[in-house]
Amino acid sequence: MKVAYEKPKVEKTIKSDLELTNEEKKELYALVLKSRMFDERFRKLFRAGRFAGTYFSGVGQEATAVVPCYKLLPQDFVGPSHRELGCSIARMPLRQIAAQIYARSHSPDKGKSHPCSYGYKPSNIITPAFTIGAQAVLATGVALAFKIRKEPYVALSFVGEGATAHGPWYEAVNFSAVHKLPNVFVVQNNLWGESVHARLVAAFEDFSHRAEGVGMFGVSIDGNDVLKVWETVASAIARARHGEGPTLIEMKTYRWYGHSEIDPADYRQPEEVEFWKKKDPIARYEKYLLDNRLLSPEEKKRIEAKLEAEIEEAVEYAEGGEYAPAEWALEDVYADFKVEAPDR
After folding, report:
1. What pTM does this model have?
2. Which one of the listed residues 255, 257, 285, 317 is annotated catalytic?
3. Which pLDDT value is given to residue 344?
4. What's residue 99's pLDDT?
5. Can you name the CATH fold of 22-321?
6. What is the mean pLDDT of the chain?
């Protein structure tokens, strides 16, 4: 017997918590701007040799990471990748982010992770592994736990378009769709998986088509439109909290710089880079706020000055710490727990 497939639809009755107040719009502006300013500062610090390893910049993609994590509940789960500085900007202290990049012993990971492996247990941000797509697998497991416990929380995960061709990511998305789990899968399509163009990853332009293969609702949006990102993610989160299942959101965006700071990105044409810089998400959102008199030039200057001072304090905090001693590598490997024998 042939079973007709019906594409999932957005539940129109779910409208809760979609609107932003004018104050929240300004707060969101400050967060995306903080991500940009911090990012640019740390690019310079890396090039000045102030910390080791490398650095993965998310400049140009701020809306795709900051906005989805804005107004999440503390219990919600975030599974970032290495370019999701914005997720941490929205959910953890700036000084802790800086200390992690510097691999200092007083960072949340005790200086054990690669730079840009931002994690923060108090906000349920998992420290990302560099296994492509692994964060989606973890997010699906967490979402299953939320459903089993009947908890109204959601699990977000972030990948680039290239990761959607990896088996573990597809298995996670498929499992979530089958069990209607409270997941939001964000796919940041910045056209390049390191040096591989998106056209060599899939035979379509909209990566939201990945959702169709598993029976999940999927949508492609302009990831450089702050308010569009908010509207779409807030709706997906509302659906997940109300038991309507997962959503896959492709956000079309662009990274301004190389895959990392050691990548000259000479595989891209200058015209392409300039085209996308004109779609700068922060400049566009700032114009919206100014045009609608939600932000004044004076307020903008005050916000910038406040953020600059906060960033410099975070740099001082990071540089004031020490590297972890070698023996710490043997710690935090196993969890300490005791299993009680059941009564018979």
Report:
1. 0.92
2. 255
3. 61
4. 97
5. Rossmann fold (3.40.50)
6. 93
Give the pLDDT score at 10: 47
Q: How far is Cα 166 from Cα 163, in angstroms, rounded to an integer?
A: 5
At 1 the pLDDT is: 43
Spell out the alpha helix ranges (H) of the chain. Answer: 22-47, 62-69, 85-91, 94-101, 134-148, 167-178, 209-212, 226-241, 270-277, 281-291, 297-319
Concerning whether 29 is annotated as a catalytic residue, the answer is: no
Burial 113-148 (b: 16+ CB within 10 A, else e): bbbbbbbbeebbbbbbbeebbbbbbbbbbbbbebbe
CA dist., res. 295 & res. 289, Å (int): 5
Domain ranges of the chain: 22-321
CB distance 211 to 181 below 8 Å: no
Active-site choice (47, 267, 302, 323) = 267
What pLDDT is attached to residue 71?
95
323 classed as catalytic: no
Helix (H, G, I), strand (E, B), or coil: what is residue 140?
Answer: helix
Nearest C-alpha neighbor of 80 from the set 48, 117, 53: 117
